[in-house]
Amino acid sequence: MHSDVASLVEAGKISQEVGEKLDGVSPGSYILHRSWGAGKVVSWDLSSGKIFLDFIDKQNQEMGLKFVMGKTERLSPDDFRSQKLENLAELQALAKDDVVELFRCLLKSNDGVMTLHQVDSQLSGSVVQGDKTVYKKWWESTKKKLRESKVIIVPSKRNDPIVLRDENVTPLNALLSDFNEAADIKTKIKAVEAIQKDLPLFENEVDKLNDILSHLDEESRQLVKIRPEQALDLLACRDDLVSIGQIDLSDNALRISDVLVSEEAKVVNSLSGLNSSRLRRIFESFPAAFGEDKWVSEILSVFNEAGARAVAEIAKKLIADKQEKAFLKHLQVSISKRNLGVDAVIWICRERKRVAESVFGIEVGATAIALLERDALEDGPRTTGRLTSLMNEDKELIPDFIASGDKNEIRNFCNRLLSCPAFTDLERKSLMARVIKIKPELGEMVTSNKKQDNTVISSFDSIDRRKADLKEIVNVKIPQNIKEISIARSYGDLRENFEYKAAKQMQSVLANRRAQIQQELNNVQGTDFKGAETSSVNIGTKVTLKTDAGDTVVYTILGAWDSNPDKSEVSYLSVVGKSLMGRKVGDKAEVMDFLKDEKFNMTVESIEAINP
To answer: Residue 165 carries which DSSP code?
Structure first.
């Protein structure tokens, strides 16, 4: 007991119990203040009831003795927060040179378990100096070092705790523990990747390695029907392990080819989100899955709607296997049918001077515009952002599109470019400037289209539905999103708070959608389609056409927001609508048939008003 306190107890001025409490805040003791953090008692004046403390950011701070005794928490000298006061420079040095030892000290003073939020509060700005950006960069590199050390368990989810392992756990057992305790597929795959890096540890533990392979096989079988993409990812990761360790799989082990065959229809959806190395393994399994005669057609069926990484890996596989001719033929057919996905079009654009040179041209540009138009007119989040950015940022792309086109093709392309809702007015002018630079005669299109760029015609019913969508966004979805942001913010640190990020992303989507609908409603003209002019194809007319083969096709040309392909009702702004608008009876037109998904030469047989 401090001598000042002992004297008071011996003199009978305070009780033994009060003396013990008073001794807990004697000079040299450590306390925890709710706002200022850890502090060290420097001195006190018992006669006046004052105490003086040093905090990290406040020196010789005067406080009331009763307040310190009743409102602060006692800290031991070994506590990490106490060490920050005494040995901050040493801890800062550990943060630079030995993060494993730093976290060992930190976790030991917290019973070996801490949340990431608690870790941030202890280290950011003090032990790790700098702003939040500096700390985030430090943490990203530190996570890798901690995981590699096997001493500390770093969770993949922010809400899960960081844990100090038992110091008697061997690196091998640490790897096995991480694998066995992985609660989700992503974490399990990371555990397998860690095992791959330290495979020599299993040199004399073949049975344990075989147990891991058996577990991966069993889990993959359970996932095949419900989450085939996870089954493929897990098997590809397993095969990486098998390849590195030169291990023989058992004859009855599940193969990637087995999943491909059984889940053929779901392959496209199964490939989004997988990394390139595992995608490569999956595509290498196509010949085994479908046979030498069929694998090329199967892999090409995946290409059109696959994600960016999958598109690139499919192209590499086909070219490496000398299937370039079949690949280019597939691209040519897909371009003519307009059934390429966004990432496939982006790949062709980027490879236009190399592999895709023979198929690149104005038809690819028309396909790109069609994708942008469709995406802009559909509800929901946009899927063509990367394509829009490519067309804006690649200064040579638009000129390359039109280089091989004839006069009419170029004019049609420019008309669609000028009316494409995916671009702002400024972007349209910039894109057209690139056209005019090599085709000056098209300059008049900018002024002649200026007034009609933004105005569209649609039915009153469709306008009412769009107004209802806006009302729901403003009155229901946005207020609900504000609540979700508030709730997610309460979960703690926003930097790795998934719920907060998701809610903020939705906030952006809703704001963009609200602005878009408001702009669309400002620029729409309503119609009931009464008295449509029938001397040529116009909005509000039903057009009967006959193909060269003698088949009859009927289209109804409606407003911008009135499409219903199942009923052959098309917008006048659609590809079909634009190809028919202004045609008269007897005129020929090249039209896309929705049912057969092919282009046909057709002759206009009759035109009638849908609402005379």
So the answer is: P
